[in-house]
Specification:
2 domains; about 210 residues; four-stranded antiparallel beta sheet; single chain; Endonuclease I-creI
């Protein structure tokens, strides 16, 4: 039985920065995990960020502070990355997707209240997923025009995740905002979602942007 706590959005009806939560939820589903060690009284949420993207670390930490304003954050150095962490006994409430094992090895579905937040703030959710398990790249191709071979470059977004459920949530959010997407296969595995049409890339650039 969940204990009523007025400080928690889920079990006590406290206020919540919904946009920040949508972004943090995307980060969690991509590169995050929740764990509670025996020596700690409360669980921790960890978002692992590559050292090449200091802006992402700042954004992750800002979203944590907005979602849990009464809790402190910290950064733990690891090889080539930092773990951005926050501790709270309400993490189990806020992220009911937690469970034993890897996320791609178990079912992942949003609770009704989470889906309502994602529907209201789809771009924040998309941005969190892309900033965790996605990227913006520049592809190129060559065509012969008038006897001359020319190189053409075009931007593209990719989202890669081995969980079919998480890819489904990403694609559903893209559908919600009118972004066209396709599935690309690498090694025969359909783990990559691609956004390449010009109008859709422009929308992604406006609302998501590359990691920095």
């Amino acid at each position: 039985m969940r204990i009523h706590d007025p400080a928690c959005y889920v079990c006590g009806g406290a206020s919540l920065d919904l946009a920040a939560y949508g972004y943090l939820l995307g980060l969690y589903l991509g590169d995050g995990h929740i764990i509670q060690y025996a020596k700690h009284r409360v669980p921790s949420l960890t978002i692992t960020c590559d050292d090449r993207w200091p802006g992402l670390m700042d954004a992750a930490e800002d979203s944590m502070r907005a979602v849990l304003p009464g809790n402190r954050t910290c950064r733990v150095k690891s090889t080539g990355c930092h773990d951005v962490k926050i501790y709270s006994r309400h993490l189990w409430c806020l992220f009911p997707q937690h469970g034993p094992g890897r996320k791609h090895e178990r079912d992942i579905a949003l609770a009704l209240w989470q889906q309502q937040i994602v529907d209201a703030h789809p771009w924040e959710f998309i941005r969190g997923l892309v900033h965790s398990d996605g990227c913006r790249v520049t592809n190129w191709t060559e065509h012969v025009r008038g006897g001359e071979r020319r190189r053409y470059e075009y931007p593209r977004y990719f989202f890669t995740n081995t969980s079919q459920d998480i890819r489904g949530l990403f694609c559903a959010a893209l559908d919600h905002v009118g972004v066209a997407w396709t599935v690309t296969r690498r090694g025969g595995r359909p783990h990559n979602v691609s956004v390449a049409r010009r109008a859709s890339v422009e929308l992604m650039d406006l609302h998501v942007g590359a990691k920095h």
